[in-house]
Structures are given as structure tokens and as C-alpha cells.
């Protein structure tokens, strides 16, 4: 029997099958696949979007922390200095190209960043130079003004004492030499070490000193000691000592007499004169 038709049996001398059309029920549309529905939704969402997310624009660059940065020469600060990049709203932004280079003081920089972090960005491992004093790093981001990060390199522990003035002088017996005695206490790189005690002692020739002790200044120098040498000839020596390190000053005694040899009458032969003048 065809779909949509019904049959009724007619009774009588002749049986007939009667068919009539019956309206089909409401057609059912097959369900769309889930993937197709998701694809349609994504297309609609894209159509409503106003484009890609806005790109963060750096507006300010600044170092973090206000405490002075110090370290012994040839070493790295205990904590690596940091900086931040912010947008116009003051928000810290990451992924911005940065450049960090050494300025004053020498030293080395390892693992320097090339992009900012979303928080504070470390400059990497910064080892200060071997000369005591100011060290700097410069951080740049695009056209923003560079930021200088400043550290102070401090002298290391004493490793030697050196004469800085007053050695190898001469004076008349019992007289004061012209230049005062001074020394410098230095670290392994030759930087003066401050606040180091120094003792001055006469070790040969007698004489006197105006002071037997001094303390090095910020430049590592201790001095101003006046020396009157002994009244007799011979070696004149003063020793300066700081800790286990020592250095000597020497002086010589001048004679106040000037000897001249003159020959009366006929001068003798040259070989005879040389015997007297040698």
C-alpha cells in the first residue's frame, strides 16, 4: 500500500479496495551535526568581533627599588636590579623589546633580557668592574628615554701596602727630609682600602718621627708623617706596617763638606792627578 493511503473494504457483490489520501504528518528535519553548529557559532562570533585585541604600547620605563646598589669590585650585587615597562594607564606590560647595556665602570653582563616581563624584569647577572666607584647599566625601550641603573663598586680586602710618597730622600745628618712619608693600603686590583690602621717605626739610623700611627682615608692613603734622620751616617730606614703587610722607606745622609783638590805649582801628570781625584 502506498504511503499516505488507507483502504476500506466494501462489502457487496463486488469487493473494492478504496484508497484515499491522508495528509502526511509534519516532516521532521534530520538533526544537524554538532560540528556544523559549532562552526556556525564561531562564524557569527567572528562577525560580531571588532578585530584583534589592541597591542600594548609602552609609555614609561623605570627602575624598581630606591635602595643603593653596592657590591665589592669584581662581584655581582646580592640582588639583581630590576625595571618595569608600563602603558599609559600605569599597567606593567610584558613582551616589549628591551635592550640592556653596560655604561660606566666596565664589568660584565650575562643573561640580559630582550623582552620585558609582565612584572619586574631582571637585568640579568651584572658583575661590577674592578675599579672602585660608579658603575652603570642603561635600559632602553623604543623611543622612550633610557633609564640608568647605578651601582657603587667597593674596594675589597687589603692585599698589600705601597709607598706613595717620601721614599729615597736625603738630608743633612740630624735634619728633616723634605717630603712627608705616606703609604696606600690596596686590594687585589689596586683600589685604596679605607679605614685601615698603619704603624710607622724607625728600624735603622735613629732619628725621630712626628707620628707613629695613622689611618687610611677614603682613598686608602695614610700619611703626613715627618721624618728627621739620624745624626750619624749609615742606613736610614723607616718601616710602615698594616696588618701582615709592610713596606720600607730609605734615606741617605748628606755631608755638609765639599772637598776640592788643587795642585800647587806645576800640575803633576794626569795619572798622578787621577790618583787624587778618583
Topology:
Blueprint (H helix, E strand, L loop, with lengths): L4 E5 L7 E5 L12 H15 L11 E5 L4 E4 L9 E5 L12 E4 L5 E3 L10 E2 L2 E3 L5 E8 L6 E8 L5 E6 L3 E4 L8 E6 L10 E8 L3 E2 L3 E3 L5 E5 L1 E2 L7 E7 L2 E10 L15 H8 L1
Parallel strand pairs: 4-11, 13-21
Antiparallel strand pairs: 1-2, 3-5, 5-8, 6-10, 7-9, 10-11, 12-14, 14-18, 15-17, 15-20, 16-19, 20-21
Question: Could you explain how this protein is built, in words?
Answer:
There is one protein chain. The chain is mostly beta strands. Strand 1 and strand 2 form a beta hairpin. The longest helix is centred in the N-terminal third of the chain and has 15 residues.
The main sheet orders its strands as 13-21-20-15-17
Low-confidence stretches: 4-29, 38-49
Helical amount among residues, as a percent range?
under 10%
- Rg from alpha-carbon coordinates: 49 Å
Number of strands: 21
Shape: elongated
- The quaternary organization reads as single chain
Order of helices and strands: EEHEEEEEEEEEEEEEEEEEEEH
By secondary-structure content and strand pairing, the structural class works out as mainly beta
Distance between the termini: 157 Å
> Averaging pLDDT over every residue, what do you get?
85
> What proportion strand?
35-45%
Report on the biggest sheet. 5 strands, mixed
Number of helices: 2
